[in-house]
Automatic annotation (TrEMBL):
The keyword Cytoplasm does not apply. The lineage of its organism: Eukaryota, Metazoa, Chordata, Craniata, Vertebrata. This is C1q domain-containing protein. GO terms for cellular component: extracellular region; synapse. Residues 1-21 form the signal peptide. Its main location: secreted. It comes from Crenichthys baileyi (White River springfish).
Length: 184
């Protein structure tokens, strides 16, 4: 066998090996990308309220301490990062995530609309919405935040002490999803 055919044979073997290695790497990336499908959507439920004595209000709260809000009605939980009984999302992989929440409360004619809900990351306040007035009997607010998360970081919503969410609990929504993962 001459030198040229030997070089061509070795070159072909090298290229075949590289193609096989690249094909294998692509398969691994496809599997990893599937693992990064992380999203959830959950709402509160009507059975979470109690009647406040001396009023016609049916509310979640008020409590004498800040309380994590559970969102037990889960309609999406890709990746199973959201715990509905605790209301806590745990990041499955490091990356950039987007979270949104809508709060709704209705206290009826002449009532005092008084709520504050904050998004907590690892026990620290990130963003919040609040209402404190007697001018309208119902109101809603939405907040959206994009943040970096590490694997194991936790995000949840918290109702502040002395505040309440009243009627139509199903209008209170908590969602989140990964925007893009960091490569490990």
């Amino acid at each position: 066998m001459g030198v040229l055919p030997l070089v061509l044979l070795l070159g072909s073997l090298f290229l075949c090996g590289r193609v096989a290695a690249l094909s294998s790497a692509i398969d691994v990336l496809k599997q990893d990308a599937h693992g990064f499908k992380v999203s959830f959507k959950a709402t509160m439920t009507p059975n979470m309220v109690i009647e406040i004595p001396g009023t016609t209000e049916r509310c979640f709260g008020p409590f004498n301490t800040n309380v994590p809000i559970p969102f037990p009605n889960v309609t999406l939980n890709s990746g199973n990062g959201y715990n509905p009984s605790m209301g806590v999302f745990t990041a499955l992989c490091p990356g950039v995530y987007m979270f949104s929440f809508t709060t709704y409360s209705s206290v009826g004619e002449g009532g005092r609309l008084y709520h504050k809900v904050q998004l907590m990351k690892n026990g620290r306040m990130g963003v919040s919405v609040w209402e404190n007035n007697r001018e309208d009997a119902e109101d809603s607010a939405t907040q959206v935040v994009v943040m970096e998360m590490q694997r194991g970081d936790q995000v949840y919503l918290e109702l502040l002490s002395g505040r309440k969410l009243c009627t139509n609990m199903e209008y209170n929504i908590f969602t989140g999803h990964i925007v893009y993962p960091y490569t490990v």
